[in-house]
Amino acid sequence: MANHKSALKRHRQSLKRRDRNRAARTQIKNMVKAVRQAVEKKDKEQAAAALRDAVATLDKAASKKVVHWRNASRRIGRLQQAVNKLG
Asked: N or C terminus: which one in the chain shows less Cβ crowding within 10 Å?
């Protein structure tokens, strides 16, 4: 464990960020799962609604640097492709 005041503060900050990032990644997983489940059920309206939420969540996570912006973009593109195939 660190002994310097600045190092202790940096450690506290890293713990806060870890918790925030974990929560954001969990939320991303749940949103993506909702879209995929709606696509499996072939429910276009539900899939479109879930896609809107997932895109917003992924964009926010990318802007906060929780996930890389290209990773978010790729996931959004693949989800949109899946929803567009429904009809």
From this structure: N
pTM, 2 dp = 0.86
Separation between Cα atoms, residue 17 and residue 15, nearest integer Å: 5
Pair 26, 55: CB distance under 8 Å: no
The domains of the chain are located at: 5-84
pLDDT tens across 14-56, in order?
999 999 999 999 999 999 999 999 999 999 999 999 999 999 9
- In the CATH hierarchy, which fold is given to the domain comprising 5-84? Methane Monooxygenase Hydroxylase; Chain G, domain 1 (1.20.58)
